[in-house]
Amino acid sequence: MTKSSIAFIGLGNMGAPMAANLVKAGHAVTGFDLSDIAIEGGAMASSAVEAVEGKDVVITMLPAGKHVVSVYEEIAPHLKDGALVIDCSTIDVESAKRAHEIAGKAGALSADAPVSGGIMGAQNGTLAFMAGGSAAALDAAEPVLEPMAGRVVRCGGATAGQAAKACNNMILAVTMIGTVEAFNLGRKLGLDDQALFDVVANASGQSWSTTTYCPVPGPVPTSPANNDYKPGFAASLMLKDLNLAQEAAGSANAATPLGEHARDLYARFVEAGNGDVDFSGIIKMLENDDG
Ligand code: NAD
């Protein structure tokens, strides 16, 4: 594998372990974050501009679209000729489009490559990347992502990665709420959780929300339900992704009534103080609602 010089901007819960896996793979990594953080085996820069100067690759892992666009605007004049920039943050499609435009004007190759797999996936180097960009950008990005990835799916041109992430997580929220409703109804009808699981897991109601992430304790011992819904995929992050999906649906004029309703339910769950609870914990809110 070719070793690259990589600037990694945004070393939070996800970025820090991702950068560490790039170091382990032999890349020369220089990090920058607004907070005082270090990368084991890597160097730290005192600004984003300093981090990117002379680097082959720039990776960003930032909270939201506004952070990505402002960092891209700041670094664009300082990128090495022909540099590759990869944004792995989960952001709105409009900001992703803007980021590609800024990179393109600066003569850089660019990819949007949001991830699923959470902090464990970032630590273990098993993230699923959903990548969008030109064929040349994705050809260049794939070997760079490899040490952080379980899988890289090429989703299409610029912003296709963000679009795929928004669509996937909208399905996840809707199937989770559907699964939660079915277990709540089953219980009220006197049905045993395990019996319902045994039917659904092998029938047409089956989904990841049942077989891998079952929202009731027992049937899937590794699901967060067995640990009082902590840790896992925080409801606040699910709400963020559902808001991004709704923004995208609004601008694309796509009807997503269940996605909208799922967003509203997660907003209520988070407002009630459950932002750091795993998203399957919404069963606790819905089981207390009257029919
Ligand atoms: P985080 O808040 O832990 O980390 C973000 C980091 O960005 C922080 O350390 C912050 O200081 C830094 N930052 C903000 N603005 C900056 C700037 N201008 N320059 C340099 N650094 C800056 O968030 P996270 O959990 O690591 O998530 C990062 C992204 O990954 C988000 O878009 C999130 O939606 C996405 N994501 C998170 C998870 C997860 O499980 N945490 C899973 C999938 C995707």
In brief:
This protein has helices spanning 15-24, 48-52, 65-75, 93-105, 118-124, 135-145, 160-188, 193-200, 208-211, 235-252, 257-274, 282-288; strands at 5-9, 28-32, 43-44, 57-60, 84-87, 109-112, 115-116, 127-133, 149-156. It is an alpha/beta fold. Strands 1, 2, 3, 4, 5, 6, 7, 8 and 9 form a 9-stranded mixed sheet that branches.
Description:
- The chain is of the alpha/beta class.
- It folds into 2 domains: 5-158, Rossmann fold (3-Layer(aba) Sandwich), CATH 3.40.50; 163-289, N-(1-d-carboxylethyl)-l-norvaline Dehydrogenase, domain 2 (Orthogonal Bundle).
- It is 48% helix and 14% strand.
- The chain has 12 helices and 9 strands.
- Helix 3 (65-75) packs parallel to helix 4.
- It is elongated, with a radius of gyration of 20 Å.
- The protein binds nicotinamide-adenine-dinucleotide.
- Nicotinamide-adenine-dinucleotide binds at residues 9-15, 32-35, 48, 61-63, 67, 71, 89-90, 115-116, 118-119, 237, 240.
Keywords:
single chain, 291 residues, alpha/beta, N-(1-d-carboxylethyl)-l-norvaline Dehydrogenase, domain 2
